[in-house]
Structure formats: structure tokens, C-alpha cells
Amino acid sequence: MKSINYQHPLIREYKLIKKGTDHNRFVVEGLWAYEKLTGSNIKIEYLFVSSDYNQKDKKRIQHLMKISHVVYEISQKNMTRLTSKEKPSNIIMICSKENLTDTFKKVLVLDGLESPGNIGTIFRSCDGAGFDGIFIVNQKAKINQYKVIKASMGGYFNIPWKAFDTIESCAEYLIENDFKILLANPSDSHEKSHLKKVALVVGNERFGLSKTWFNYQHQTVSIPMKGFCDSLNVGVAASILMYEIIKGVQ
Predict the structure, then answer these.
(1) Range 159-180 average pLDDT
(2) Taking the alpha carbons of 98, 64, 46, 141 in that order, is the dihedral positive or negative?
């Protein structure tokens, strides 16, 4: 196992990947996702291991070392500089995954979401509800940044995603592939119907859905609000709607 210092070019690369600048790669810090990560098709390209890792983690770390393409040792001081001074990690992984996008039946479309926490929650809920993928339009936040990965609690590992340059190109893809477009709109109600392929579209945390979506044949969906508040957090709302939708998807 080779040693690596703080000035190594790969450390600079890791910092950029952590911010979500690489479309195909992302960062995982610590062992919180060990079971989900090792049970997935995720590839560990680089593994950084602290020179002073906790011995209780030895077996899991040794397994990660075996399945990683390249392993480097890094000092605990530098590991703390790279992760968290309050709760530093023993390991850092630079990972990659393939986004296969040809067998969708249930997708969630994110229109201009800004919060990494909301996006991560949605990945987690997509995995739990059995949705096949996430489409992104009007991208405001880097989808593979570390905050999204952490908030997804492993959901990111299992859910493929695809970015579209415009709403028009996304909508055309959905129509050509026989998806029913459902627009999450708090002020509307809808009638339930059985669907074979469905795309649920949720909008920006502040401004909601782009008006362009309403130019396409669609159905609106909403969540009844019984109290003073007139809407829910987009991550919460998307989760509720996905679980409701799967009841009607054949």
C-alpha cells in the first residue's frame, strides 16, 4: 500500500469530485454505507485509508482494500483535514457507477431542485418505493456531490439518473416512450388511474414547476393539506406521491 500526502494531485481531484464536478464519479467518506456499497455494482476506483484506523473496523476495511482498484495510506491528520475535524473518517472512497437508462417504468423528474438534502432524500425514497430512475432538468445542484450521496443513505448507489438539456427534450423522451406525465401541483386534485409507465414531475423548492410542463398532455397530482400550511417540503411530498403512485402502476 502506497502512502499519499496532502499535496498529491489525486487529493486535489478528490476535492473536485466531492463537489460533484465529475458526472460519473462520486465520493463516499467513512463506513456508513459499507453494506450497501459492497452489495451494489459500484466500483471503488481509489481508496484512501487512515494510517491510524480503528481496529474494530479492520475486517471491513481489509475487504474494501481487496475490492478497490488502487489503495493509498494517508495520515490521520490529513484525513481529518479532508473529512471532518469533529468526526473524521477512517477511509475515503472515490467511486463510479454506470447509469443504465433503458428499462424504466417509473421515473421521478426533478425540475430545478436546489437543495442537496432534498435530492438525496428523493434518491432514498425512489429506492424504497421501487422507482426505476431519476431525470433532471434545469439542474441547479450537482447531483453527484457528497451532500447528495450522504443524504441518500445509499439510495444513490441503486438509482440511475439522466440529465436533459431542456424540459422539451425530457418531455419528448417521455412521450415517445409512452410515459404518463404526472405534475405535482399543490393546488390541483386528480382522479386515480392505473398506469403502465409513469413520470412524476416535481418542481423547484421556491418557485414550483416550470410552466413549460403544462404545454404537454399531463395529469396533475396533489397531497391534501388539512392545516395552515399549504405545501410540504419537496422531498417529503415526492416521497408520499411515489408511494401513492406505485399502488396504481401495473
Answers:
(1) 95
(2) positive
Give the tens place of pLDDT for each residue, 92-116.
999 998 776 668 899 999 999 999 9
Question: Tens digits of per-residue pLDDT, 64-85?
Answer: 999 999 999 999 899 989 987 6
**C-alpha separations of 32 from 1, 60, 74 in Å:** 23, 11, 19
pTM confidence score: 0.87
* Residues with Cβ within 8 Å of residue 226, at least 6 apart in sequence: none
**Number of neighbouring beta carbons within 10 Å of residue 19:** 13
Whole-number Å distance between alpha carbons of 250 and 238 = 20
Q: Closest Cα to residue 209, out of 239, 229, 190, 182?
A: 182
Question: Could you give the CA distance from residue 106 to residue 180 in angstroms, rounded to a whole number?
Answer: 10
| DSSP-derived 3-state class of residue 136 | strand
* Whole-number Cα distances in Å, 102 to 14, 168, 174: 30, 19, 12
Residues in the chain: 250
